[in-house]
Amino acid sequence: MKKSFVTDLALKLAPYAVEIRHRIHRNPETAMVEYKTTELIKHELLQMGVELQDIGLKTGCVGLIRGLKPGEGKVLGIRADIDALPMQDLCGKPWHSTVDGVAHTCGHDSHTAALLAAAKGLMQIRDQFSGIVKLVFQPGEEGMLGAKVLVEKGVMDDPTVDMMVAMHNTPMYKLGQIACAEGQIMAASDRFLLKFVGKSAHGSRPSEGRNSLLALSHAVLGLHEIISNEVNTREMAVVNTCIAEGGTACNIVPAEASLKGTVRTLSPDVRKTVEAAIRRVAEHAAAMCGCTAEISYSYGCPPVTNDAELTELVRKAAEKIVDDGNYLHLDSLLGGEDFSVYSQVNPKTCLYRLGVARESVEREPQLHNAHFDFNDDAMPYAIAGHLQLVLDING
Amino acid sequence: MNTLLDTRTTQLALELTPYAVELRHKIHEQPELGMKEVNTTQIVKRELEAMGVEILDLGMEVGCVALIHGTGQGQGKVIGLRADMDALPMQDLCGKPWASKVEGTAHTCGHDAHTAALLAAAKGLMTLRDSFSGTVKLLFQPAEETFAGAKYMISHGAMENPAMDMLTALHGTPAYHLGQYAVASGKIMASADEYHITFLGKSAHASRPVEGRNALLAAAHAIIALQEIVPNEVKSIEEAVVNTCVLESGMASNIVPDRAVISGTVRCMDPEVRKTLEAAIRRIAEASAALCACGVEIDYLHGTDAVINDEETVNTITAAVSKLVGRENVVRLKSLLGGEDFSFYRPYVEHIAFYRVGTGTPEEGPVYQLHNAHYDTNDEMLAYCIAAHIQSVLDVNG
Question: Hey, are the CB atoms on A249 and B260 less than 8 Å from each other?
Fold first, then answer.
């Protein structure tokens, strides 16, 4: 870490953030029921004297810090997600989850804690920036519901957010690294449900029925060939079949079979191509076996798309914090993120990644792994990132 | 079309039919799956008791064995009559007032009629006791569909005390016209085996397929290849079926499934073909798994043997039913790949036959086959079942 006023301040704030993180880690709450976490956040913000904005949220919270430096200044939104996952915590740390079957295995505890610490720091240096920092503590990222709720409640208005950033930790990069890139960095995440309808008959008389499982199997194979056959090799995309169900007894030709799966794409064109191919494969697999197909295709969150100008600001801020060579180009991922919902209101958004891997990235438990726990040594970088961006944009 | 001739037996059968119709509708409304035929067993026992039929206590929780002793002169034989009682795990779409009231369970194989007709035949035989000698053994068998029932009956001693000289069973089918009986000697129904194949992959986030191994993909390859065994590996003259009927895989739309289970049925008439099919299924299961870098567990269950009818019994039945409808309405039974656990009784009874009673009425609208959700047997066929049971007893022991 480079030495500067900002990194010094971040290092001083880090113990507070770590203490808060452990508290949140012990009491994880799943998407949209983050009541205790919300209480904790509000309590801390009020202690600091941060203005809370009531936009009618059940969980999550919005705070405003107004800079005192003269000048126009922008309204900069900083988003931290606050929810945990419905899984066991096997991290084995003293601060492991005390709630059975709920765990902060995506590190949102650190996002919340780092933003609280950054708020504390910003309150101390209000005279050094103008404009407004809007702190967005978002519930329900994992269910992809939270951002939608916040946008509906008007989080992007009053004051209107000019730009919005989010930091997400990742063990795919090492401690001391920050990674970002413009354009699509995370995928649109769609789902399909295909129902194949044949005709039941006694299992020993196939000719009197139409076996829906046979249509389903042809569809599974056809669907898995879409990417290699119909998508440009340079594009990233996934079509995956994840749930299949059909039949009731070993001697009854199954009249109905259903198939569910996921589609991840970065480019809107590929998204259209893949959707059309899925519909075609399903219909023809059904027709081939004398069955019919009912196709339901549901659009999830759009891809996370980083604004070029804001990404450049993130790069400059990050390079002031991390050692030389530790700001990296972020590889796109086919995971989904509801941060993209904010971009639909204002495309000036950017999500960047904070490395937390201790030694080798390969040996590190990844996000959503029951053994994952945020690396507290990365906390100063997280706090410094927020502070530096505010000062760079509104300083 | 009514083909019943005017005889003492057919008159009696027609008199007993309203009773059988009422019972059938009652059983149809309350279908029960194999080995769970508790209410149906209660109905059977209550009716038999009301008729004064002797019920044997074999300690069975479902199903029932009862005896009717003829009071006629002579030695007489022990004649077994078997009716199955169980329903299937499927929706009842028959649309009749007596449609199933149990969600997901239906008498789409017509066992309701078999049970009702045997009860009515028992009632008739009780009024005719002085017309025959020997003993009629009534076997109300549970769980034919799951092939567990005949074994259950055998293990509870249904084949002994008294042992049977002859055993017959009838089964309704729309494959023949109402008014017809179908009978044949030799191999008439298939051996029925089951496979349960579990493909084992590796779970991962669905957006990162490379980190997992999709077990569903292996299952899909297998299902398609299994379908190709019969046309490719079995002589065209042989009858055989390999059919995958159940697939289950996955738990969430964004997780690569690490497990996929397929189940299906294997039918054939010939023991050599049976071996060929089993070997091919094992080979395909292993190869499909290997193709997708998955593991595999194969559970191959040998089910019923082929049903093989004894010629002498077939002649007896043919003669008996010819008296009811005329020889022209007794047709040759075509072999079928359906499995029947009736085959398990064969080692215990020398004279054994399984025959069919037509239920098809194509002139009245679409004909639904057995195990089709719209199938409901018709009430008119009950008289033919009742008459056949009674006439066969009178012919052998009268």
Answer: no
